[in-house]
Amino acid sequence: MKPHVSRRTICLGMVAALHATLAAPVFANEPNWPTKPIKLVVGYAAGGATDVVARLVAARMGTELGQSVLVDNRTGANSNVGAELVARSPADGYTLYVFTIANTINATLYNKLGYDPVKDFEPIGLIAKIPNLLVVNPSLPVQSVQEYIKYAKESKDGITFASSGSGSSIHLSGEMFKMKTGLNMLHVPYRGSAPAVTDLLGGQVQSMFDNSPSAMPHVKAGKLRALAITSKERSSLLPDVPTVAESGFPGFEVQSWFGMSAPTGTPAPVIKRLNAALNTALSDPAVKQRLVDLVATASPGSSDDMRKFVASELKNWNEVVKASGAKAD
């Protein structure tokens, strides 16, 4: 005698089967993924550090994957335009995003974002980190971080520090230093790093926590004086410049960083394939040397490594942004 199966059980079984079909990873239906070019969205204009790093790894990843990885610059709102575009894209591995320190800062800086930096993205892996340099105009009579602090404390007006814009990593590096020291530091925001550096060279502002690739040529030429670097360790390109941590502030570390993410829901096998291709690119001697030339350090690792790192950065910058009072609409 055949067991009785209710109509309800049959219907539930059909619904479950349909759901499983709809939720099946695209990878299962496309075992030779990728079969077409991949788009890598950068939230900044061509020529900047994020764009340069993206194009560097994209070219090598394309060779590894057997398909072109094409950089697509979508600028606006401190990279939020590009981030939202990718967050709303199909989770099929063909639209990726260069996730940066800005996205963890923006989570607190903006009252409302068109995306969730955690829930809407699946980490693929970190790409690289670039430290900042505390640089001053040579006319400022200071040769070290401690002399900088002493000068700021003894000056009735404190000290000025420029940035590429309110809420940028350059700005918040200064705000973090201000939190640690309690100094009277006046923030002078500019519309980009270039005009800020121009005024620093001209003496209109006194100091800046500039990105290393931007500041390095001026330091090498003697036009700016580097007091400290914000990485955990000294740079081989500036071996005589101490870290901020070495200069009396243990644990102080700020680096602009770049990672790669995909929309949430991207199949795990696709993420794994992309992570492997990214790490292969970062192990390429030519890629590593180019990153060194940019004062950047390659940061290969797993997608989980990036997930944990992003979580720590979100917490860190939440505290700094709130303490600084910085806001953006």
UniProtKB/TrEMBL annotation:
- Write the record's keywords in alphabetical order, separated by commas: Signal
State the Pfam families in the record: TctC
Q: Which domain of life is it from?
A: Bacteria
Q: SUPFAM superfamilies from the xrefs?
A: Periplasmic binding protein-like II (SSF53850)
InterPro entries given in the database record: BUG, Bug_dom1
| Signal peptide, first to last residue | 1-28
Concerning its family, UniProt says: Belongs to the UPF0065 (bug) family.
Listed name of the protein: Extra-cytoplasmic solute receptor
